[in-house]
Design a protein that fits this description.
The complex is a heterodimer of chains A (530) and B (338). In chain A, helix 1 runs antiparallel to helix 2. In chain A, the strands form five sheets. In chain A, strands 4, 5, 6, 7, 8, 9 and 10 form a seven-stranded mixed beta sheet that branches. With 530 residues, chain A is of the alpha+beta class. Chain A is built from 18 helices and 22 strands. Chain B starts with 6 loop residues before the first strand and ends in a 21-residue tail after the last strand. Residues 324-338 of chain B have low confidence and may be disordered. A seven-stranded mixed beta sheet of chain B has the order 7-8-9-10-11-18-19. Chain B has a six-stranded mixed beta sheet with strand order 1-2-3-4-5-6. Chain B is globular, with a radius of gyration of 20 Å. The longest helix of chain B has 17 residues, at 146-162. The chains are: A alpha+beta (530), B alpha/beta (338). At the A-B interface, helix 5, helix 6 and helix 17 of A face helix 5 and helix 7 of B.
Chain lengths: 530, 338
């Protein structure tokens, strides 16, 4: 695994994109074929099935290190990563075994079929043959979650450079359902592919947040405006008489949304739609919370299907009559989309996301102000001549979101972060006033600068009142403005509410605790935005 | 019951029999200082007592008068006998042994067991009670031998030099900096130093404790005269206009904290070298065992966790909070001595 470990170390040591690309390109040119394939697979979220629970891994690591389990558990939050904690806590390797990445992946896969005791022996044996970096990588292979700061775009660029295939074509090849076991390097990277994967989605085109005045975009007539929906973005693929649904995170989510099983009856094969999946009833979207039970579920209970049926509000057509039409101007794609979808019956579960009729910026701005009434987060502005590009290319597509809602709250609990933020207190629980007391209502992790987190970390250490495992109860003194996108009733929370996308908008050093907002005030937002 | 030999007060560790404080963090009339790092040697005390090398360094840093006491020489102060013993942390650094009526307490200051070639090597001292630092008192902290780290650093420097880049190596200016310089291979190229590092170099050279040749970076520094150098500087100098004097450069940082990937990434250094002037987990346990102490007071570091482990190992262990960030402090902000 030395090659792969060296690649990882190089990637980890730099934040410069050019250097990361160069390191990857070099690896894709020189590493053994199986390792190249696996690297692409791992960096695009494909990995061997988890064969060992993390609980067992912790126990084995503590045992091998000769320390009590509680000491392992105390060390973990300080290191901030389980695979790394194990790698660091084990004694140095007894002997070194140099095998390639594919070999170790074979080992990980082999674990699944073993008896529990054999599994333990096998893992301990591997740990004893690897150095700290290799161990860390091996543990990542077992535990999954191989996130090491390699974006899809970066990997695509490196692959394009290493193989000579152009970037958009490479991006398309990397999409879809392929697995390293049943794919060869040539199949993955060769320009033409005879066995076209019928479920393969297109890379999603992404919008950038609009920070300037909308008027700076020029003639409003050049732009198509729609609601920015708060649902799950998906690509619905109809090919060869069947359908597939992909999430924006490139997960195949067909089974979670059986509503779309009917779409092949209404739409011809060779159709690919991009749109928003929303829980939808009586001609209007339901709150996002109603969509949440579908996430992370393989099958959908009947009750859910009747209480919160979904539909797709399609905003783009990527493939029409079997042809890739992404290069056509949006206005053309939109016209074809409407021809396809207009007039479909209710139970087709697909309808076009309506265009907004306003034709000048002040009218559009006024419309945006009322987005929440439509359970929308604002507007999308897309240039009528724009192609459907892969990834985020500034200029053609803008999300013009509403300003977030906000509330002033006090921090009452703090917990250390993970990974880059290990050793820093970054995960906070906030409370608002409720009568004479405080009631916790949300957690938030982001929005402050590193310097602010440093300062708060020192403050937390000096102002801890009580500890509950890794959680510190702190003096209720620091006030923050919490921004959020929506608010819903929630029986699971003591406060009775749940926020959508809460984050710290700023640290209100100027604000004393007795001036924070109240639960009553928060609940009054429920009526308006819940 | 008689006073304990040492007690923990809000000004720091106090010896009632001698009426003296050890490494106090608030001004006191009389202070014993283990070493010259800023979290141990504070300004504003009435009098200072330290080993000759630490004394020279405190004079240089704080401009105060300091009395000297050589290693291994007992001194009667009131009802107590005190003596300094090498801690191996930085040149001149000491453990403080305090004996009152036949009972011996030992204050470790900061220490490491591996000889670094510059500091007087750590000397085990028997005692009844041991107040020990535990900055790296978790089993995830384990150091490689110094020679291996030296190979890594020199390899990094050589590669940078071949690519025509300077190597900016961040390290605390007293102790770590000199240790790193002594590990560098002078055949590779010129070794430049920041003013803060050179100040410590000068004090140690004058005392005969440091002999490596370095080139101080002066205001009229000419980059062309020293292409692709090694530059040893406190990390606070990075990202400033000072650091841009050297042209294209790679930054590295040498600290025990570099063992953690999260810290490496947060600091944004291009290379992290895992090398510390503090004892790692196995060394802490060994040092404690070798004192023969039954009572142990962990301070500076993950004190609660460390004390809990020691209790299971059969020691009577009580964590001691310190003013400097309390427990779990990692001195990361200042790069101090880690």
């Amino acid at each position: 695994m030395k090659d792969f470990a060296r690649l990882f170390t190089k990637l980890d040591q730099t934040t410069r994109t050019s250097k990361k690309t160069a390191a990857l390109t070099e690896f894709f040119r020189t590493a053994p074929e199986a390792d190249r394939l696996w690297a692409v697979a791992l960096f695009s979220g494909r990995r061997p099935k988890r064969a060992v629970t993390t609980t067992l891994l912790r126990e084995w690591a503590a045992e091998r290190a000769g320390i009590p389990l509680w000491l392992f558990e105390e060390s973990y939050p300080i290191v901030g990563d389980l695979a790394e904690t194990i790698a660091l806590i084990l004694p140095p390797a007894a002997s070194r075994e140099e095998r390639d990445l594919a070999h170790w992946i074979g080992v990980v896969k082999g674990l699944a079929g073993m008896e529990p005791e054999a599994r333990r022996v096998a893992v301990l044996e591997v740990w004893d043959q690897l150095d700290a970096t290799e161990r860390f990588l091996f543990n990542k292979l077992i535990t999954g979650g191989f996130r090491i700061g390699i974006s899809r775009k970066l990997m695509t660029r490196a692959l394009a450079e290493a193989t000579g295939v152009d970037e958009p074509a490479m991006a398309l090849r990397l999409m879809g359902n392929w697995q390293p076991e049943d794919t060869t390097w040539d199949q993955l990277t060769a320009e033409e592919d005879a066995t076209e994967d019928e479920s393969r989605p297109y890379p999603f085109c992404l919008a950038s947040p609009l920070e300037a005045e909308a008027a700076s975009l020029g003639d409003p007539g050049d732009w198509l405006a729609e609601w920015k929906w708060d649902g799950i973005r998906g690509q619905l693929i109809l090919r060869g008489g069947t359908h597939h649904l992909w999430s924006r995170g490139e997960e195949l989510i067909t089974d979670r949304f059986p509503e779309f099983a009917r779409t092949p009856d209404f739409l011809p094969p060779g159709t690919v739609l991009d749109g928003e999946i929303l829980a939808w009833k009586d001609g209007a979207p339901l709150p996002f919370a109603q969509l949440q039970p579908r996430i992370g579920r393989k099958t959908v209970p009947k009750k859910l299907l009747t209480e919160a049926p979904v539909r797709m509000l399609a905003y783009d057509l990527l493939e029409h009559e079997g042809a890739d039409i992404r290069a056509l101007p949006l206005s053309d794609r939109r016209a074809r989309l409407e021809t396809l979808l207009n007039g479909l019956p209710e139970d087709a579960a697909v309808m076009p996301s309506p265009l907004l009729a306003e034709t000048d910026w002040p009218a559009l701005a006024a419309r945006r102000e009322r987005a929440r009434e439509h359970r929308s987060e604002g507007l999308m502005l897309k240039h009528r001549d724009s192609a459907y590009r892969d990834g985020r290319k500034r200029g053609d597509w803008w999300k013009w979101k509403l300003d977030p809602l906000s509330v002033d709250a006090v921090m009452i609990y703090a917990q250390q972060g993970h990974g880059r933020r290990a050793n820093l207190f970054t995960d906070f629980t906030f409370a608002v006033k409720d009568g004479n007391g405080l009631v916790p209502f949300t957690k938030a992790y982001s929005g402050l600068t590193d310097a602010e987190f440093d300062e708060i970390t020192r403050w937390v250490k000096r102002n801890t009142q009580q500890r509950f495992g890794p959680v510190r109860q702190v003096t209720p003194e620091l006030v923050f403005e919490i921004a959020f996108e929506g608010i819903q009733e929630s029986a699971r929370h003591k406060s009775g509410i749940a926020l959508r996308f809460p984050r710290m908008a700023r640290w209100r050093r100027d604000k004393p605790v007795d001036e924070i907002d109240t639960l009553e005030g928060l609940k009054s937002l429920l009526g308006a935005y819940g | 019951m008689a006073d304990p030999v040492l007690s923990f007060t809000e000004r720091g560790i106090y010896c009632p029999a001698a009426d003296i404080y050890i490494d106090p963090w608030r001004p006191v009339p009389r202070a014993l200082i283990t070493h010259a790092h800023s979290d141990h040697a504070r300004p504003g005390h009435g009098s200072y007592l330290a080993t000759p090398l630490t004394a020279a360094m405190i004079r240089h840093r704080l401009g105060v008068e300091v009395q000297e006491l050589a290693f291994g020489t007992p001194l009667q102060i009131g009802g107590a006998t005190v003596s300094f013993h090498p801690a191996g942390h930085v040149p001149g650094s000491a453990q403080v042994r305090v004996e009152v009526g036949g009972e011996v307490w030992l204050v470790s200051g900061d220490y490491k067991l591996e000889p670094d070639g510059l500091s007087e090597p750590f000397e085990p001292v028997s005692c009844h009670a041991f107040i020990t630092e535990c900055t790296f008192g978790l089993p995830v902290f384990r150091w490689q031998p110094q020679a291996e780290v030296a190979t890594e650093i020199n390899g990094w420097w050589r590669a940078n030099r071949e690519a025509g880049r300077a190597s900016l190596l961040g390290a605390y200016s007293l102790g770590k900096a000199q240790r790193l310089i002594s590990m560098l291979d002078p055949e590779i190229g010129p070794i430049l130093t920041h003013g803060a590092v050179e100040g410590s170099n000068a004090v140690l050279r004058a005392a005969g404790a440091f002999a490596c040749e370095t080139i101080p970076v002066t205001p009229d520094f000419d980059r062309k005269a020293h292409p692709a150098p090694m530059v040893v500087a406190p990390p606070s100098a990075f990202g400033t206009s000072w650091a841009r004097k050297f042209g294209p450069a790679q930054t590295g940082f040498a600290s025990g904290w570099m063992r953690l990937r999260g810290v490496r990434r947060r600091r944004g250094v291009q290379r992290g070298f895992v090398i510390s002037d503090h004892a790692d987990w196995p060394a802490l346990l060994r040092a404690i065992k070798e004192t023969g102490a039954e009572r142990v007071f962990p301070t500076h570091g993950y004190v609660d966790i460390f004390a809990q482990y020691l209790r299971i190992e059969g020691y009577e262990a009580t964590p001691v909070p310190t003013e400097f960030g309390g427990d779990e402090d990692n001195s990361e902000q200042t790069g101090d001595a880690a």
